[in-house]
Design a protein that fits this description.
The chain is α/β, with parallel strands linked by helices. About 50% of the residues lie in helices and about 15% in strands. It folds into three domains: about 100 residues, Glucose Oxidase, domain 1 (3-Layer(bba) Sandwich); about 110 residues, Enzyme I, Chain A, domain 2 (Orthogonal Bundle), CATH 1.10.274.10; about 325 residues, Alpha-Beta Barrel (TIM Barrel), CATH 3.20.20. The strands form two sheets. It has an eight-stranded mixed sheet with strand order 1-8-7-3-4-5-6-2. The two termini are about 30 Å apart. The chain binds phosphoenolpyruvate and magnesium ion (MG).
Length: about 575
């Protein structure tokens, strides 16, 4: 592979921001091995002993760093790797084979450890398949040390992670290290890994196709998460250009911070409530400092992603209570575990179409023990009266009623146990499946509030996988069917006098905000980092204007027409700052 200079790759801007750092190829540095016969067996065995002890030393260093940066739980991954190096049976097997087969230790190590990996890769559990990557890491580490190559620590420098794909757990793991950006070959805008990157404020470009094959570790990379561009080994001119953009952005950010105490109100006085989505516990401070009015969506399945199993009632109760206290008197909307889809199921099943499978409320109603544990924890934490509970992936009234029956059962249990809870805790649902949208009125009559989940609503309405970059151009927020469905949901919810909000990523798209406000939404929930910008936009628009704008959009029949109309409105009314600061 020849080294390429100052060329650009195009992908999807998944998390805004611009960053410049060296590339780190995640899981890609595979060491080659040869199967030639060796003459000095003793030397080979000594070399193996040296490589194992060196690998152990490296891993111990990584482990202590990891404990600092990731905490005990996540650091355990490295501890487990150290244990493999202590596995006497494995070491004896390798030594015996070196003697018998007269092959290099690199070759035997590769062969033996690959056997473990094959077993793991054949597993039905995604968890096991993902763990096979850890084994790959160990294998490469030993082989690298056998070849006496230098170790480049993966978590001590500022790097941009380049990878074929990345899981939400990877994103989290790297966030505690010095990761300044992400570039992946696969993935879409609303994949959960992209959402986590946005939450963490780390610029990301996904769906770049050939990023991991054309970028080398150590290349200087510019990630432009606004425009979905990646510049490799930039020229001096390009560097200056982006450095000046970064400094403009940080000034703009400082200006936005001043809006923290100001209300989100349009020029003509319509007040909008801006809440934040919470994906990881680290975000709590950010949500407070960015001036959000409470939390509109707690992705509980994401919060507990780092646990080996879902936490028990006490652990959940402690966490939900902490949220309730931190944000009191503002509301915290806790969503029931939305397990499934691209979020790993805690059980060993392999589904052909996970997004159409055992997900959200479907999984919870089939796993009532898990569901009831969460309901009890939420109810107990609701004592301060500022917790709402929300159910994901609802497609039928039966699911709402069954959930309510379980909530009542839990209330009765708590009552019998003499434990306090809010007897009027609001219960809401997400509208994120077309059947729920069609039945908004009927569903709304059953609950206290609804929240529109556009990430899923768009994928199910348009039959476009939200995480698949091949069809990402078809994933259209401004498809006329999406706009009209939003209008339908908002109107029907209002006619039932039920609060309606939106917590999908569309609400954080500056181009979409005038449309959403114009369609009648008075409450939105976005990632914490987007709160100040969205507030500034709302403060620059007139409700009367955007109402008209929405009416006009509802008449249009193509995505392009709607997009151009919104762009035109943006140019004419909201461009007090450069458009690129706003655009995704
Ligand atoms: C949505 O679908 O819009 C949503 C907010 O839920 P999630 O992204 O967690 O599926
Ligand atoms: Mg959803």
């Amino acid at each position: 592979m020849t080294k390429k200079n100052n060329f650009k790759l195009k992908g999807i801007g998944a998390a805004p921001g611009i960053t410049i750092a060296r590339a780190y190829l995640f899981n890609k540095e595979v060491e080659s091995v040869s199967d030639l016969e060796i003459d000095n067996i003793e030397e080979a065995k000594e070399n193996l002993e040296f490589a194992i002890s060196k690998s152990k030393k490296e891993l111990k260093k990584v482990f202590s760093l990891a404990v600092d940066k990731l905490g005990e739980k996540r650091a355990a991954i490295f501890e487990a790797q150290i244990m493999i190096l202590d596995d006497q049976i494995l070491l004896d097997t390798i030594n015996n084979r070196i003697e018998k087969e007269r092959k290099s230790p690199e070759y035997i190590v590769n062969d033996e450890i690959s056997k473990y990996q094959d077993l793991m890769n054949a597993s039905h559990t995604q968890y096991m398949r993902e763990r096979s990557q850890d084994i790959e890491d160990i294998k490469n580490r030993i082989i690298r040390n056998l070849k006496k190559k230098k170790w480049q620590s993966r978590i001590t420098e500022d790097v941009i992670v380049i990878s074929q794909s990345i899981t939400p757990a990877d994103t989290l793991l790297f966030s505690r290290a010095n990761v300044k950006g992400y570039v992946t070959d696969f993935g879409g805008l609303t994949s959960h890994a992209a959402i986590v990157a946005r939450s963490l404020n780390v610029p990301a470009v996904v769906g770049v196709h050939d990023a991991s094959s054309s970028i080398h570790s150590g290349d200087i990379i510019i990630v432009d998460g606004f425009h979905g561009e990646v510049v490799i080994n930039p020229s001096e001119e390009q560097l200056q250009h982006y450095e000046s953009k970064i400094s403009k952005l940080s000034k703009f950010d400082a200006e936005l911070t001043k809006l923290k105490e100001e209300p989100a109100v349009t020029i003509d006085g319509r007040e909008i409530k801006i809440m934040a989505n919470l994906d990881i516990s680290d975000e709590i401070d950010q949500i407070i400092s960015r001036g959000a009015e409470g939390i509109g969506l707690v992705r509980t399945e994401q919060l507990f992603d780092e646990y080996d199993q879902y936490p028990d009632e006490e652990e959940q109760f402690a966490f939900y209570s902490q949220l309730s206290e931190n944000f009191y008197p503002e509301t915290v909307v806790i969503r029931a575990f939305d397990i499934g889809g691209d979020k790993v199921l805690p059980v060993d099943v392999k589904e052909p179409n996970p997004f159409l499978g055992w997900r959200g409320i479907r999984f919870l109603l089939d796993n009532q023990k898990l569901f009831k544990t969460q309901i009890r924890a939420v109810l107990r934490a609701s004592e301060h009266m500022n917790i709402d509970f929300m159910i994901p992936m609802v497609t039928s009234i039966a699911e709402i009623r069954k959930s309510k029956t379980l909530i009542t059962e839990c209330e009765n249990e708590l009552l019998a146990e003499g434990i306090k809870y809010n007897k009027n805790m609001s219960i809401g649902i997400m509208i994120e499946v077309p059947s729920a949208a069609v039945l908004t009125k009927e569903f709304a009559a059953e609950v206290d509030f609804i929240s529109i989940g556009t990430n899923d609503l768009i994928q199910y309405l348009l039959a476009v996988d939200r995480g698949n970059e091949i069809v990402s151009a078809l994933y259209q927020e401004f498809h006329p069917a999406v706009v009209r469905t939003l209008r339908f949901i908002i109107n029907d919810a209002k006619s039932e006098k039920v609060g309606v909000s939106i917590c999908g990523e569309m609400a954080a798209d500056p181009l979409a905000v005038p449309l959403l406000i114009g369609l009648g939404l008075k409450s939105i929930s976005v990632s914490a980092s987007a709160v100040p910008l969205i507030k500034r936009l709302i403060r620059s628009m007139k409700y009367e204007d955007v109402k008209l704008l929405a009416e006009e959009c509802l008449q249009l029949v193509t995505e392009n027409e709607i997009k151009s109309k919104l762009n035109k409105y943006f140019e004419e009314n909201l461009k007090q700052d450069s458009k690129e600061t706003y655009s995704r």
